[in-house]
Amino acid sequence: MDKILTLALKDLRLLVRDRAGFFFTCFFPLIIAVLFGTIFGGGEHTSAIPLLLVDEDGSRGSRAFVDTLTAAPELKVLTATREQAMASVRRGKVAAYVVIKPGFGEAASRAWGGAAPAVELGADPARRADVGMIEGLLMKYAAKRFQGMFPAGQASSFEPIAIERVDVAVMHIWPASAYAITFPQGIIWGFIGVTAAFGISIVSERARGTLLRLQVASIGRWQILAGKALACFLAALSVSIGLLALAYFAFGVRPGSWPLLALAVVSSVLSFVGLMMLLSVLGRTAEAASGIGWAVLLVLSMLGGGMVPYFFMPSWMSKISSFSTVKWSVMAMEGAIWRHYSFGEMLLPCGILVGSGIVLFAIGVRAFAWASTK
Amino acid sequence: MVTLKNLSKRFGSIVAVEDLSLEIPEGEIFGLLGPNGAGKTTTVSLAVGILQPDSGSIDLARLGPPSSSNVRAMIGVAPQAVALYGNLSGEENLRFFGRLQGLRGRRLTERVQWALDLVQLEDRRRHRVKTYSGGMKRRLNLAVALIHDPPILFLDEPTVGVDPQSRNFIFENIGHMRESGKTIVYTTHYMEEAERLCDRVGIMDHGRLLALDTVENLITAHGGKSVIVAEDAEGEVRIETDDPLGDLAKLKIRRRLVRLRVERPDLETVFLKLTGRHLRDN
User: Fold this and answer.
1) What is the pTM of this model?
2) In angstroms, what separates the C-alpha of A204 from chain B's closest C-alpha?
3) Could you read off the pLDDT of A88-102 as tens digits, one per residue?
4) Do the interacting molecules here have an ipTM over 0.85?
5) Secondary element (H or E) of residue B188
6) What are phi and psi of A122, to 5 degrees?
7) Which of A58, A195, A357, B157 has the fewest CB atoms nearer than 10 Å to its CB?
8) DSSP state letters, B86-147
């Protein structure tokens, strides 16, 4: 263990002394977290927004409204029970649900007078952009039945539908700020920086000739790789601890559960260590490893919500995001920080992260070529 | 101390080492001489366990093959290319590799100091290696191989690209190692180095060991006769001889010489005789 620690400390020292590598490992993730946290909420949708509909009225009027919303190109409507809908929002699967309340049909049948037909909009407050758009679309499609009844410009004060907004997070989830969402993304960028740096460093050891020196030292080959893995693990852990400390003290992020956050971070780090080992065997030169490594990591990040929150993604991309370590890592950290996942709910993302880490590490070790062809 | 038996290694269709056998006793400096691509580095890589032979066996220090870390603790390797961490200082490199070799505490500090003194890098010990000159890096490369005081050393072309001053440093260091009784395998394509440093020399080409003996015996067996080149008023005369001094004396009596020199056969001549090529043709 002493020799593994010696190897790991050497790699950490080299990482700190490599200014560019240190910047991308430690400061770039911070910039991402703060920048995205500051501008969070902007942007335009590129695909239909998923919306869960609960029809508690069951009248002809409510069914007609359901049909109208289902036909809306901006929405992807699925029906559900209230419990299912709330759970889906709480778990972050959809940004909002709409409950068509009893009496909707009757209110809608009255052209004038009386209360406007009412719906309840249960929303994830962290997804302001989605929720704002859904609110607008509800208004738009509810107002359709009055089209042509007013001269242009006179309907501005008319309310076609009463939206009772319920923040689901008030009941269960409430991120202290957008930073609770962007700091996990920042940590992911830290992991990506560390993964790339250490993946490339293994190839650099070969190019520099120091891998040869390590091989002829009185240590086992497994110790060489274990040292590299430990260094990667410690560096990624340090980055996440640093960013979380900053998020806590400077940006008011209060994790829902420290033990679960620790579980999420450790699981994520293990997964990225495995990914690092795999990336290290993909290129024969440092330049090739760097190019391939960053390409793979950027795609994983893009698919997994490390660049763009996954609710902005087209549906096909959302589906394949399950193949990205980044998605599960974000999910695990958000689950611990502000989604208030239970231990049982954390098992899926954390299990996938640890499992993928082990598999990727094993593949990397197996494919690792100790000797060059000459 | 170092025994290689019938070693063979191929890379695809290329034969890198073919049926090579060597026995190097304790305390000997053994030179592997050959042009680039002769198979010297592959032989060293096989001997230290970086490459696995296709066939044959290796025994180091009568402990067995280098697959065991206990056996590897007995060897030091200075690779042909400088293999150091540029972003660590000279001292940090030595400490790191020393720790990997199991040195700790006062023993580690003493060995680091010894190594820095040996290669005369004491004043640059805290400077990062990337700021060193090529010669300083070469010296440190050698020092790292020696940090754990191994009884067997493999020095793979340690003077390539080195300035004359650093080359002399390295030669002096090897002299000290000879005095301390280390067994050294020294690969080179400079015949002067082999002649100057090595007790015995093996000549390699195309992966095969063509001849193996002391420098003197190799020259006697394969170098041919010395040549006296004499010049007088009538022109130049070349006389092959087994007894240059005797023949020179006779020549001086018979002719009025303007200039003369004796061309002794050397390892270059031996290599030419054995392969039909010059060492530096390659």
Assistant:
1) 0.72
2) 10
3) 887 777 889 999 988
4) no
5) strand B183-188
6) -90, 120
7) A58
8) TTSBHHHHHHHHHHHTT--HHHHHHHHHHHHHHTT-GGGTTSBGGGS-HHHHHHHHHHHHHT
